[in-house]
Design brief:
By secondary structure, the protein is of the alpha/beta class. Helices cover about 40% and strands about 20% of the residues. The mean pLDDT is about 90.
Length: about 300
């Protein structure tokens, strides 16, 4: 049975493992991501690949990474990995490890995995919407991933939801309204008047607990986050008209947050009669959890063979 290295580079952790041609994860581990230092990230990836190459004799590596990946396997943007912008990750890793490296946008990797083995297994037209540090996105139409002109199709996190005059324009993007950290945690800390990013509360579970205990700032932050996300889902639905919108990221595993998002969508539909008449796609949670990025990165490699 063929085996591959699957790596998922996130804003917090690098997850890696051995994935078979049938999608079975034989081994996995993770280590922290130094998201502001590209050299350290590259060095860590080299160590991981060489170790797995030595132990398993594998020379094909699929890597899920934030950012837009063009048809030439090059990164045009780097998402939450600030220090990786314009770094030629695939070429550097291929040269230093003597392996075949294929990059894939992280949201596309999740969508591939869910189409292969997960919540989208029986859907040909769906959107995958990871709500992680920021917001990602992937679009499947008629069973095929849509990449677009530059590879940016589905980059919903870069869509503008406002247009402030005094903040950097990126602060008006969907990632800063609907992401887990950039969205919910940012909203909460600013409601508390805390502008010192270094001291921000970033644990969503803490915000949920505070909301449940009655803290007004936490309750208002969640309500605002749910409404923002409902607007994003509605716009996606009207633009693409998918069968399902599959939400990924850690948020998708939290039943309280998923229920809050669905309730906000229902409330929005009550106010928007034309949209209500069209009906709304099914909102699902990803089922492969933290393994989806690794599995999807490998699936793309298998598909390209």
């Amino acid at each position: 049975m063929e085996k591959y290295v699957g790596i998922d580079i996130g804003g917090s952790f690098i997850k890696y493992g051995i994935v078979t041609e049938t999608g079975e994860l034989l081994f996995s581990d993770k280590c922290p991501t130094d998201r502001t230092n590209s050299e350290r990230v590259i060095d860590k990836l080299v160590d991981i690949i060489l170790k797995l190459k030595h132990e398993y004799g594998i020379d094909r590596v699929g890597i899920s990474i934030p950012g837009v990946i063009n048809k030439n396997n090059k990164m045009l943007t780097s998402g939450a990995l600030d220090g990786m912008y314009k770094v030629d990750v695939s070429q550097i890793l291929a040269e230093r490890t003597q392996t075949h490296i294929v990059l894939i946008n992280d949201a596309n990797a999740i969508a591939y995995a869910e189409k292969w083995l997960g919540a989208a297994k029986h859907s040909d037209n769906f959107v995958c919407l990871p709500l992680g540090t920021g917001v990602g996105g992937a679009i499947f139409i008629n069973g095929h991933l849509i990449k677009g002109r530059s590879g940016a199709a589905g980059e919903f996190g870069m869509m503008l939801m406002g247009l402030g005059k005094h903040e950097p324009i990126a602060y008006e993007s969907a990632s800063f309204y609907c992401g887990a950290v950039a969205g919910l945690c940012r909203i909460y800390n600013l409601k508390l008047g805390n502008k010192d990013i270094a001291t921000w509360e970033r644990d969503i579970k803490v915000i949920l607990e505070l909301a449940e205990s009655g803290q007004q700032a936490a309750q208002e932050s969640l309500s605002e986050f749910y409404e923002n996300t409902a607007v994003l889902l509605l716009n996606i639905s009207l633009t693409i008209d998918p069968e399902a919108i599959i939400i990924g990221g850690g948020i998708s595993e939290n039943t309280t947050i998923m229920s809050g998002i669905k309730a906000a969508v229902d409330q929005l539909l009550e106010r928007y009669s034309d949209m209500s008449a069209l009906g709304f796609p099914e909102i699902k949670s990803c089922v492969l959890g933290n393994t989806a990025g690794m599995i999807g990165a490998v699936y793309q490699m298998i598909e390209k063979q």
